[in-house]
């Protein structure tokens, strides 16, 4: 036991630091995004289909096909320069920059801080950088919550 | 510190083999049959090994060479064989994980039966966790990389036992080679150094040991000489910008690559990134997996301090690096970390089982205690098989046939001496795969295949087709973007063939929808004054009426195509979404007129009494069972689905035979 004493002390300190960092981070997260929002009752799959004949299409013009988002998912995190979504294919990170527009379903402008955990978002953007592994959002639309009888 | 003198016996090898066989069976049953629709760069990684070319950064030489061996297998097509490599290497990782855990678990934790149960359980949890499973059924680097990590650790622990220089050489060689499946493995080096110093500090004073280490690792990383040797095969714009033909280029292609996505978050973002990582572990192993892993960390610290430092340092460095990695699909990068976490989980489970076993031993009856032990082991194994059933549906990629079905029909449809415009570089391999491997339709020009910078003269005078949107307002940005002056302005994109989309409407689609367009200077014939469809319907769907349809032929081989003509009466000009499905399975969704309607109205004009005609071929997925099926239509937003025809689907030819026949006979 004595032989391992320094091993236990250093290893134990490392473990305590890891646990403290984890707890601290969870605290920050809950502080920023709140604890009162429940988990989504439905799976992230099968996002509501977006019909093209909606008022947003007129607002964006021909540049963006509103019914054909690049990504649909539920909001998991809001970071300084991006958001993390839970999608059918896993967690996906979307870059948000100063040119990214953020609207609600009626076309009103939102700020990132207006978004709540598990909001359903449609992202329109372009895959950039190496191997297309980053999605830079041109437009993010907060979709209306799913109704129980939605297909 | 506690040492392992004879940690494994024959039973362990048999159990590792059985676990490998189980994982392999499951991965093969759920394997992507050929090219993948869902993987962003998988089709490049399925093609490059066969050609012995150079993959995207950092080049993956070992992956390429191993892949070449798999492409020599005598069954399936090349993409199938590349997918199979992931299945085999993924399964070997699981056998390796079992052996690693068995070596690591202290005999004092629990009896051999329960230790094995804990090792089997944890390895099974990892095998059938969502992300690892998803990477073991497509052509990707992650499953082979986990196999190399397992092999590296086994070699290190073997050296720990023998202390022979030649065994250390072997470890160093495997570690060097493992950088050819993922360069991030270099981050494990500090943990290995600490472990070596804790095992035998005196080795540092022996020159032979140093030589063995340098020689082994050096030979392993010599693989990267492959980069300048095969740099001439690159056809991706971004890869060419840092072509590995100079020392600086080599650095930029490997360690210096992806600089904009490394350490990409400010310090105040790191807590959230850490929570994101914790959430990813929860997705893989559930909350119970986190708790067992935490218990396992304490167990490791007190029972196997040296292994604790090895594994925890490997773990910490990787987590620290990848929580600051800004990529779209982050979870695959944490697979190595999940692999290590599975070892922590095994320790946690073994501690629990050991505690229960010690309670059982207090029973008076020895046979009762034995029965209890065996029951505990069996229960543990059963519980750990839950992810196998729970994740099967999500992980099963055996129906991912969209790319093959689409392109085999494309090759059949394209007229002689036409040009097919596709995305360039890594994103273009859905199409490049065929001519590069099978020389399919050598008369068709793919201008983005030899170079990401094709010029307009390369397609002059050819009949133009495209599988990527080329209109001015269409998105064609990113790494596979076409040069802006390749095509004349104002071309019409007339849909010719529409592929099935795997029920993925409006979801992640880096490669976009599977549509073959004919590019024409003249507007398409999409408006008629009157029509007499073979099947009149007069189906009112909101503001539009489907007057009728023509459908030819009456029967179709699965994986083949039907020619469909829809006649629409549009009562109020607007944008309408049309969705077609076979029975309950969505085939495709598109905007009425395929985006041409507004332009047609503006440039040609549409009178109020006219009918809008949509005329195209529709791919029937090769997963569609033989028999009669309803073809359904729905106007998106209206919610009502209506049956518009019956299709007789035949299944006389096996999918793979059909794909190979078209690939080779074209």
Question: Which band does the percent of strand residues of chain A land in?
Answer: 25-35%
Taken in chain order, the helices and strands of chain A follow as HHEEEEEE
Ends of chain B: how far apart? 66 Å
Q: Shape of chain B, please?
A: globular
Helix share bin of chain A: 10-25%
CATH class of the largest domain in chain A: Mainly Beta
Spell out the CATH superfamily of the largest domain in chain A.
Answer: Copper binding periplasmic protein CusF
Specify the structural class of chain A.
Answer: alpha/beta
Spatial extent as radius of gyration of chain B? 29 Å
Task: Write structural notes for this entry.
The complex is a heterodimer of chains A (151) and B (666). With 151 residues, chain A is an alpha/beta fold. Chain A folds into 2 domains: 1-36; 55-142, Copper binding periplasmic protein CusF (OB fold (Dihydrolipoamide Acetyltransferase, E2P), Beta Barrel), CATH 2.40.50.320. Helices cover 23% and strands 28% of the residues of chain A. Chain A contains 2 helices and 6 strands, in the order ααββββββ. Chain A has helices spanning 5-33, 55-60, and strands spanning 71-78, 82-87, 90-95, 101-104, 120-128, 134-142. A 5-stranded mixed β-barrel of chain A has the order 1-2-3-6-5. The radius of gyration of chain A is 20 Å and the shape is elongated. The model of chain A is unreliable at 38-46 and 147-151 (pLDDT under 50). With 666 residues, chain B is of the alpha+beta class. The longest helix of chain B is centred in the middle third of the chain and has 34 residues, at 270-303. Chain B is built from 23 helices and 14 strands. In chain B, helix 21 links the parallel strand 1 and strand 2 (463-466). The termini of chain B are far apart. Chain B folds into 2 domains: 10-395, no CATH class; 402-665, Immunoglobulin-like, CATH 2.60.40. In chain B, the strands form 2 sheets. In chain B, strands 1, 2, 3, 4, 5, 6, 7, 9 and 12 form a 9-stranded mixed sheet that branches. Chain B has a 5-stranded mixed sheet with strand order 8-14-13-10-11, with no helix packed on it.
């Amino acid at each position: 036991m004595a032989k391992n004493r320094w091993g236990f002390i250093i290893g134990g300190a490392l473990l305590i630091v890891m646990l403290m960092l984890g707890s601290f981070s969870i605290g920050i997260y809950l502080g920023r995004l709140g604890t009162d929002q429940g988990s989504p009752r439905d799976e992230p799959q099968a996002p509501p289909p977006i019909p093209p004949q909606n008022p947003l299409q007129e607002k964006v013009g021909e540049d963006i096909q509103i019914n054909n988002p690049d990504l649909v998912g539920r909001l998991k995190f809001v970071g300084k320069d991006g958001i993390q979504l839970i999608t059918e294919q896993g967690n996906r990170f979307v870059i948000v920059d100063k040119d990214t527009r953020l609207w609600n379903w009626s076309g009103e402008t939102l700020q990132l801080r207006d978004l709540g955990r598990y909001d359903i978002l449609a992202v329109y953007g372009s895959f950039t950088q190496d191997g297309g592994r980053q999605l830079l959002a041109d437009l993010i639309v907060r979709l209306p919550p799913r109704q129980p009888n939605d297909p | 510190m506690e040492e392992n003198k004879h940690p494994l016996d024959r039973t362990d090898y048999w159990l590792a083999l059985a676990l490998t066989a189980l994982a392999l069976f499951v991965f093969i049953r759920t394997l992507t049959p050929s090219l993948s629709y869902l993987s962003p760069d998988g089709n490049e990684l399925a093609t490059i090994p066969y050609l012995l070319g150079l993959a995207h950064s950092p080049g993956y030489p070992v992956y390429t060479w191993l892949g070449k061996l798999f492409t020599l297998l005598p069954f399936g097509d090349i993409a199938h064989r590349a997918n199979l490599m992931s299945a085999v290497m993924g399964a070997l990782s699981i056998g390796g994980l079992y052996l690693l855990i068995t070596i690591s678990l202290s005999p004092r934790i629990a009896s051999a039966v329960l230790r094995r149960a804990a090792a089997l359980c944890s390895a099974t949890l990892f095998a059938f966790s969502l992300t690892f499973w998803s990477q073991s059924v497509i052509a990707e680097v992650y499953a082979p990389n986990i196999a190399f990590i397992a092999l590296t650790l086994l070699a290190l622990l073997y050296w720990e036992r023998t202390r022979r220089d030649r065994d250390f050489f072997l470890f160093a060689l495997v570690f060097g080679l493992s950088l050819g499946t993922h360069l991030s493995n270099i981050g494990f080096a500090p943990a290995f150094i600490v472990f070596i110093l804790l095992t035998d500090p005196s080795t540092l004073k022996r020159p032979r040991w140093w030589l063995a280490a340098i020689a082994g690792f050096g030979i392993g990383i010599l693989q990267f000489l492959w980069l300048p040797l095969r740099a001439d095969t690159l056809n991706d714009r971004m890869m060419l910008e840092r072509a590995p033909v100079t020392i600086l280029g080599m650095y930029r292609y490997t360690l210096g690559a992806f600089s904009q996505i490394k350490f990409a978050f400010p310090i105040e973002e790191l807590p959230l990134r850490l929570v994101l990582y914790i959430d990813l572990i929860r997705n893989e192993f559930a909350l119970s997996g986190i708790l067992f892993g935490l218990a396992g960390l304490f167990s490791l610290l007190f029972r196997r301090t040296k292994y604790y430092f090895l594994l925890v340092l490997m773990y910490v460095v990787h987590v620290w690096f990848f929580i600051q990695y800004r990529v779209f699909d982050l979870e695959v990068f944490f697979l190595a970390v999940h692999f290590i976490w599975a070892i922590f989980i095994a320790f946690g489970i073994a501690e629990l089982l050991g505690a229960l076993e010690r309670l059982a031993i207090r029973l008076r009856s020895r046979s009762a205690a034995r029965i209890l032990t065996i029951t505990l082991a069996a229960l543990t194994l059963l519980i750990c098989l839950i992810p196998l059933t729970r994740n099967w549906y999500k992980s099963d990629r055996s129906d991912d046939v969209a790319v093959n079905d689409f392109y085999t029909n494309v090759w059949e449809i394209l007229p002689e001496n036409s040009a097919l415009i596709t995305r360039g570089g890594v994103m273009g391999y859905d199409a490049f795969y065929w001519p590069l491997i099978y020389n399919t339709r050598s008369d068709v020009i793919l201008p983005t295949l030899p170079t990401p910078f094709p010029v307009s003269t390369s397609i002059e005078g050819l009949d133009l087709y495209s599988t990527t949107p080329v209109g001015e307002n269409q998105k064609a940005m990113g790494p596979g973007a076409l040069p802006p002056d390749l095509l004349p302005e104002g071309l019409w994109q007339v849909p010719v063939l529409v592929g099935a989309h795997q029920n993925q409407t409006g979801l992640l689609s880096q490669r976009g929808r599977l549509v073959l367009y004919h590019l024409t200077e003249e507007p398409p014939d999409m408006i008629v004054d009157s029509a007499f469809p073979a099947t009149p319907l007069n189906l009112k769907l909101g503001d539009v009426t489907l007057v009728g349809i023509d459908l030819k032929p009456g029967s179709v081989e699965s994986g083949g195509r039907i020619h469909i003509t829809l006649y629409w009466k549009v009562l109020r000009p607007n944008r309408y979404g049309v969705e077609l499905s076979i029975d309950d399975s969505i085939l495709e969704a598109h905007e009425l007129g395929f985006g041409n309607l507004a332009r047609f109205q503006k440039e040609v004009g549409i009178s109020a009494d006219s009918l809008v005609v949509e005329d195209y071929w529709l791919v029937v997925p090769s997963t569609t069972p033989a028999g009669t099926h309803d073809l359904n239509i729905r106007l998106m937003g209206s919610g009502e689905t209506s049956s518009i025809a019956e299709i007789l689907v035949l299944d006389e030819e096996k999918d793979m035979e059909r794909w190979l026949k078209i690939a080779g006979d074209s």
